[in-house]
């Protein structure tokens, strides 16, 4: 059985070859590109299991590539490890806030890089196993694999953050969640999530869900819960 597919994005040919060689030795299937725009094309068409992404790319930098991928429902679940010579704290914070799972600074140890990749892929496999099944509750059907929500069999279009909030709460009917807990669960993939913006997201979510919106209840002074 082939191992997971990894897309490596770096405009330095020697880095690409070095990473490709070492990851191939570990049994991973590797695709390579030196372009941010081509990285977007390959990520959307091939849906790799993980992306190693350099920041300092020509034309479109790694931050922009990461932002686009994490705002696209089709690619938002692909883990991204930023691989770069930019080691300033502000760059690391920016990368992680955009949704990257890890940040590896050049020059780097191949053994450390491989260990981090293994850890992230193990965590992804466990998460996929936990969330892949279709959830049906009240008059709602939530399909994480297809990023699909149906109300009375009618498709409802949600943003990535709205979908994550709904899925998180619907998985725990009757539980009361604070705004901070909701923020921690979604990480604001396509919206700068704060305590106040959680309220805005909930209002918008209820409106889009129409008759199913009543299942999201406000618990005064605490937060929200999904009705049992």
Question: Which key features would you list for this structure?
Answer:
228 residues, alpha/beta, Rossmann fold, Arc Repressor Mutant, subunit A, 2 domains, 5-stranded parallel beta sheet, 4-stranded antiparallel beta sheet, 8 helices, 12 strands, elongated
Please, could you describe this protein's structure?
- The chain is of the alpha/beta class and 228 residues long.
- The chain folds into 2 domains: 126 residues, Rossmann fold (3-Layer(aba) Sandwich), CATH 3.40.50; 92 residues, Winged helix-like DNA-binding domain superfamily/Winged helix DNA-binding domain (Arc Repressor Mutant, subunit A, Orthogonal Bundle).
- The protein has 8 helices and 12 strands.
- The strands form 3 sheets. It has a 5-stranded parallel sheet with strand order 2-1-3-4-5, sandwiched between helices.
- Strand 3, helix 3 and strand 4 form a beta-alpha-beta unit.
- Helix 2 runs parallel beside helix 3 and helix 6 crosses helix 8.
Spatial extent as radius of gyration: 19 Å
CATH architecture annotation of the largest domain? 3-Layer(aba) Sandwich
Enumerate how many helices there are, as a single number.
8
Which residue ranges are poorly predicted, with pLDDT under 50 across at least 5 consecutive positions?
none
| SSE-based structural type | alpha/beta
- The total number of structural domains is 2
Please state roughly what percent of the residues sit in beta strands, choosing from under 5%, 5-15%, 15-25%, 25-35%, 35-45% or over 45%.
15-25%
**Straight-line N-to-C gap:** 42 Å
What would the average pLDDT be, to the nearest integer?
A: 86
- What is the level 1 CATH name of the largest domain? Alpha Beta
CATH superfamily of the largest domain: Response regulator
Instruction: Tally the beta strands.
Output: 12
């Amino acid at each position: 059985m082939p191992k997971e597919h990894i897309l490596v994005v770096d405009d330095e040919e020697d880095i690409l070859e070095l990473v490709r060689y070492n990851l191939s030795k570990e049994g991973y299937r590797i695709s390579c590109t030196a372009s941010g725009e081509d990285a977007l094309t390959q990520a959307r068409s091939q849906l790799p299991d993980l992306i190693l992404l350099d920041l300092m790319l020509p034309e479109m930098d790694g931050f922009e590539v990461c932002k686009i991928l994490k705002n696209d429902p089709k690619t938002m679940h692909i883990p991204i490890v930023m691989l770069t010579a930019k080691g300033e704290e502000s760059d690391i914070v920016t990368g992680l806030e955009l949704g990257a799972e890890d940040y590896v600074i050049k020059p780097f140890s191949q053994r450390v890089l491989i260990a981090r990749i293994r850890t992230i892929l193990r965590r992804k496999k466990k998460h996929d196993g936990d969330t892949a099944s279709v959830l049906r509750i009240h008059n709602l059907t939530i399909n994480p694999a297809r990023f699909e929500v149906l109300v009375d069999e009618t498709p409802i279009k949600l943003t990535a953050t709205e979908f994550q909030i709904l899925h998180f709460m619907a998985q725990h009917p009757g539980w009361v969640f604070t705004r901070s807990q909701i923020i921690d669960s979604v990480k604001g993939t396509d919206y700068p999530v704060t305590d106040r913006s959680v309220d805005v997201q909930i209002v918008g979510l209820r409106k889009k869900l129409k008759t199913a919106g009543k299942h999201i209840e406000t618990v005064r002074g605490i937060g929200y819960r999904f009705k049992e």
